[in-house]
Every structure is written in structure tokens, then in C-alpha cells.
């Protein structure tokens, strides 16, 4: 099974909120993203945490801007503030804002109300 399939099997449906979007995740210890990170003390890698925002933002952008073909251009302002362990309920909240031809997803991940990570994803027109 591909990593994105494992992620899809570990999350709730994308929910539209007053301030943007929300989705929750619970990863079992068997989730392949924990492999080798770290033996005996598994924590969710930062690259997986940003991938959660990327996948969900793409889904939201396709809903809001169906005619636009967008691709991730950059990840900025990353702060990883708290380890995420297996079986912890991880909540992703994000908002979208347009800036010129780009769209910015401002993302926050929390566990039990405590911020685990924050970052921004910049999406721009897909190269032809």
C-alpha cells in the first residue's frame, strides 16, 4: 500500500469550518511513516506532517478553484513544536488565501489543544 493510501485510511473527511478547513488523523504504530523514526520511540516525521497539509490543501483548492491547475511551490515558516506519537489524535486546521496567481495554505497541527506544528504551503500554477 502506498503512503498516501495509509494516510487516507487514517483520517476523517475534510470539514469546511468558519475559518477554513479541518481534518483529524490517528496513526497506528504500524503506520509506515514511523518506520525508523525512531526505533523504540516512534514520532511522526515533519515531512509527513507537512504532507498532511499538502494533501488536504490540494483537496480544498480543487473544491474552491476547480478550473485552476495548482502545484506545491514551497513550504515556509515551518515550526515543529511537539512530537506526535502513535494513536494521538492529530487535528489539522488550515485556511486558504489568494496572493496574485498563488494560493497560500496556513496550517496548524494540534494534539489535545497543544500546537504540534505550524507551516505555510505556497501553491502556484502548475508548470506545463
Description:
Strands 1-2-4-5-6-3 form a six-stranded antiparallel β-sheet, with helices on one face. The termini are far apart. The radius of gyration is 15 Å and the shape is globular. The protein has 128 residues and is of the alpha+beta class. The longest helix is centred in the middle third of the chain and has 19 residues, at 46-64. It contains two helices and six strands.
Trace the largest sheet across and list its strands: 1-2-4-5-6-3
- Broad structural category: alpha+beta
Radius of gyration: 15 Å
Helix content: 10-25%
Average pLDDT confidence is 95
Q: How many angstroms separate the termini? A: 30 Å
How is the biggest beta sheet arranged?
6 strands, antiparallel
Oligomeric state: single chain
Helix and strand element order: HEEHEEEE
Q: Percent of residues in beta strands?
A: 35-45%
Number of helices: 2
Please tally the β strands and state the result: 6
Q: What best-fitting shape do the alpha-carbon axes yield?
A: globular
What keyword list fits this structure?
single chain; alpha+beta; 6 strands
Can you describe this structure in just a few lines?
This protein has helices spanning 3-8, 46-64; strands at residues 15-16, 21-26, 70-80, 89-99, 102-111, 114-125. Strand 5 and strand 6 (114-125) form a beta hairpin.
Amino acid at each position: 500500500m502506498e503512503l498516501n493510501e495509509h494516510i487516507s485510511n487514517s483520517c476523517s473527511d475534510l470539514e469546511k469550518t468558519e475559518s477554513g478547513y479541518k481534518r483529524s488523523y490517528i496513526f497506528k504504530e504500524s503506520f509506515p511513516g514511523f518506520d525508523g523514526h525512531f526505533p523504540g520511540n516512534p514520532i511522526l516525521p515533519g515531512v509527513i506532517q507537512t504532507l498532511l497539509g499538502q494533501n488536504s490543501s490540494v483537496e480544498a483548492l480543487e473544491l474552491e478553484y476547480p478550473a485552476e491547475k495548482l502545484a506545491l511551490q514551497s513550504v515556509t515558516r515551518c515550526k515543529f513544536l511537539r512530537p506526535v506519537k502513535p494513536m494521538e489524535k492529530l487535528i489539522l486546521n488550515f485556511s486558504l488565501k489568494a496572493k496574485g496567481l498563488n494560493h497560500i495554505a496556513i496550517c496548524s497541527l494540534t494534539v489535545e489543544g497543544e500546537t504540534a506544528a505550524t507551516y505555510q504551503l505556497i501553491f502556484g500554477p502548475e508548470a506545463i
